[in-house]
Automatic annotation (TrEMBL):
Keyword Oxidoreductase applies: yes
Organism domain of life: Bacteria
Keyword Phosphoprotein among record annotations: no
Organism listed in the record: Thetidibacter halocola
SUPFAM superfamilies: NAD(P)-binding Rossmann-fold domains
EC number: 1.1.1.30
GO biological process annotation, one example: monocarboxylic acid metabolic process
Name recorded for this polypeptide: 3-hydroxybutyrate dehydrogenase
Any single Pfam family the record assigns to this protein: adh_short_C2
Family that this chain belongs to: Belongs to the short-chain dehydrogenases/reductases (SDR) family.
Amino acid sequence: MTLKGKTAVITGSNSGIGLGIARELAKAGANVVLNSFTDRDEDHALAAGIAADHGVTARYIKADMSKPEECRALITQAGACDILVNNAGIQHVAPIDEFPADKWDAIIAINMNSVFHTTAMALPMMRKAGWGRIVNIASGHGLRASPFKAAYVTAKHGVVGMTKTVGLETAKEPITCNAVCPGYVLTPLVEAQIPDTAKRYGISEDEAIEKVILAKQPSKEFVTVEQLAGTVLFLCSDAAAQITGTAIAVDGGWTAA
């Protein structure tokens, strides 16, 4: 498929899942806008590299997704937004009675509220263009709960609910809104946790992966960034034109149980 002429804005995209999605959409011909809260030479170099590799326009725009005005300004500065991928997110783990209030506020702001603000700004652009795709990167935790992740689970459930609402509001238009719900993904951040997890439990790294990190994932395999990016690309395709307001689990069977 081709996304030539389309502009994709991907939040939280200077590493990991977001960067993988940006590269996949650029490979399909989309112009891309990368984003994070930093403003380093490396961030702008990532955009330049994508442009050179795929012959598209690629830019990096700094915007802090914890701040509503910066969420909205990101879309305005992008100038166009045919595809919006809401990917930015953070995590903190603690029992609810010990959960720091500032961590709760930050997770709700970045993981959920930012989706509202970017979507509200992007929809008028999509309507004017006569086409649009919104893909919210939720989580298996948007469909299932786990202990000690109150803010994250709450935010991701909220993103799934917002996805359904936007899907219904745009159902008669050539615009779709869907959520992708990944299981455990092998990102550099997760990869770095494997040795420490093995040491903590006194087991091998392979056992740490299977018995601890992937305990809930029946496939016992990590989801790859490439698989998630491919799912997002499919949702942008004509084949997915009647898929809207839904949550697609990419989780090795975790939420099937």
